[in-house]
Design goal:
CATH architecture of the largest domain: Alpha-Beta Barrel
Oligomer: single chain
CATH superfamily of the largest domain: Glycosidases
Number of strands: 28
Distance between the termini: 33 Å
Radius of gyration: 23 Å
Largest sheet: 6 strands, parallel
Number of domains: 3
Shape: globular
Length: 513
């Protein structure tokens, strides 16, 4: 039966649909809602669902829609309607062909990668353990605990509130008596060190006055320095649409690297909803909210150790993208796979599924070690283990039994064992733009797998099927072919299998000749 793309112009809106087609795209943070069936109005210029955005839709029938500018969209009964008039482009006959055609035209891979250690070893972030009390003694204690509990050293991220104030990149003397010695010790233990940064500047600080005089801060339409409201209060903000301001910011970060031995930066904030374009005046007079997000993302290209949570476009670039902060909950664990798959579909191949157990610190407040749902932490670690990157924050050695800690430790080591395979596909992504983590529909089109959100393909060879709830069993859909599981058992594809999954098992299946 011939499939036809239908486009209907209605009140300056386009309805994008095709007979039996399903659509993905636009927002990583909506990945668990995709393919779109029913989606309330979403504005790409003022909303980001706490994560990356790309003005791209892709269909299961090989069509795609791209826009250089942000737009609104809704979905009803699988029909996507946009505020801008589009005619879908035929890129092929499958989701994969649509993606490859769109990325080749609009965000081709540039051949570069973030530092390989971000892929091949676990990452450790101090946020959940220390929150706003970042300090030298506890950071070293955390790092030594990583090694003492048998976990591989990797990248260690020192999170928010290490610095004297926003816009300043010196360690707080009262909390960090000798930061250079601290970082030297972390290096000796085998870690690379990243620190949290943002584009905001505390008002009435020396940096504020210097940047204001230079014209490097965002202003109001009346010409005064703009004060923006974000989650840590009210601050001025670098105007990174100004090339000189961006150059200055990069130089300040590089000076911090020289002063302390810092290896890279966690680039937080930059969300489009922080930049109300009607209330600010930028160096780039045509800049919309997302153009500020884009300018922030470009800063990271100067640093091989980088991480972003908010982004606009920038697919195919050597930037690490983390999923938005997740609650400590099973519902959050269930969002990880579909959101990571959509990140890949939007060109963000070098991605990390937030922090194991969740990165939303308020969800961890007042939970005592004996009150944790240990199964949730274990299953979360299993989801991470065979993703391109895995990141710890809440300390598993503090909250898990000896038996469950051993399981999580094995997951960290499994990730390191898969490092060469993951890097094979990371290098492929840098050349071709192909995602590392893939939807089942992407890899096996038109086999009824479009709604499968609890298993994924890692490259071409491995199907990963973690348990993402409190059960000890699950169904696994194996596409056509011959498969061998993590226990050596062989399966004939084209069937659904019910398998037992005790807490210490991460099921994965290798496609064999």
């Amino acid at each position: 039966m011939r499939r036809e793309v239908l486009y209907i112009l209605l009140l300056f809106a386009t309805t994008i649909t095709a007979q039996d087609a399903l659509w993905w795209g636009a927002a990583v943070g909506l990945g668990h809602e995709q393919p779109y069936i029913d989606q309330p109005l979403f504005d790409l210029n003022t909303q980001d669902a706490n994560n990356q955005l790309v003005p791209l839709f892709l269909s299961s029938d090989g069509e795609y829609v791209w826009s250089d500018r942000p737009f609104n969209f809704t979905a009803k009964n699988g029909v996507v309607r946009t505020s801008t008039s589009f005619i879908p482009v035929k890129g092929g006959n499958t989701l994969r062909e649509a993606y490859m055609a769109a990325q080749a035209k609009y965000f081709p891979a540039n051949g570069q990668l973030p530092d390989t250690l971000l892929f091949t070893r676990p990452q450790y972030n101090t946020w959940i353990e220390l929150m706003y009390n970042q300090n030298q003694a506890d950071i070293l204690k955390y790092a030594h605990a990583v090694i003492d509990n048998g976990f591989p050293a990797g990248v260690l991220m020192i999170d928010d509130n290490w610095q004297r104030y926003y816009g300043n990149f010196s360690f707080k003397a009262e909390r960090f008596p000798d930061p250079k010695t601290m970082i030297d010790e972390l290096h000796r233990l085998g870690f690379k060190v990243m620190v949290w940064v943002c584009p905001f500047v505390s008002p009435d600080s020396p940096e504020y006055r210097e940047l204001e005089a230079a014209g490097y801060l965002l202003r109001t339409p009346q010409g005064e320095t703009a004060i923006l409201n974000w989650w840590n209060g009210y601050s001025a903000c670098y105007d990174l649409t100004n090339p000189k301001a961006a150059e200055h910011f990069v130089n300040v970060l590089k000076q911090a690297q020289a002063d302390y031995g810092i290896d890279g930066f966690k680039f937080d904030a930059g969300d489009n909803n922080c930049y109300a374009s009607a209330r600010i005046a930028a160096y780039d007079k045509k800049a919309t909210n997302v153009d500020h997000t884009l300018s922030w993302a470009r800063i990271g290209l100067q640093f091989p150790f980088n991480e972003y949570r908010a982004c606009w476009k920038m697919g195919g670039q050597p930037l690490v993208q983390r999923l938005g902060d997740k609650d400590y909950s099973w519902a959050a664990v269930q969002q990880l796979i579909p959101q990571m798959c959509v990140a890949g579909l939007l060109g963000y191949a070098y991605a990390c599924p937030d922090m194991i157990g969740g990165g939303q610190f308020t969800a961890f407040l007042n939970i005592q070690p004996g009150e944790f749902d240990e199964a949730l932490i274990v299953r979360s670690a299993q989801v991470h283990a065979l993703m391109p990157m895995m990141q710890f924050s809440v300390a598993p050695w503090r909250i898990l039994s000896k038996e469950n800690l051993a399981i999580v430790q094995r997951m960290a080591k499994l990730h390191a064992e898969f490092g060469p395979y993951i890097m094979q596909y990371a290098h492929q992504a840098a050349k071709t733009g192909e995602p590392i983590v893939r939807l089942m529909e992407y890899q096996f089109p038109h086999q009824g797998l479009a709604q499968v959100k609890d298993q994924f393909m890692l490259g071409d060879k491995y199907l990963i099927a973690p348990v993402i709830d409190d059960r000890l069993e699950r169904d696994v859909i194996l596409p056509a072919g011959n498969w061998r599981d993590d226990q050596g058992k062989k399966y004939k594809g084209g069937k659904t299998y019910h398998i037992d999954v005790p807490l210490d098992r991460l099921p994965f299946f290798e496609l064999v000749k």
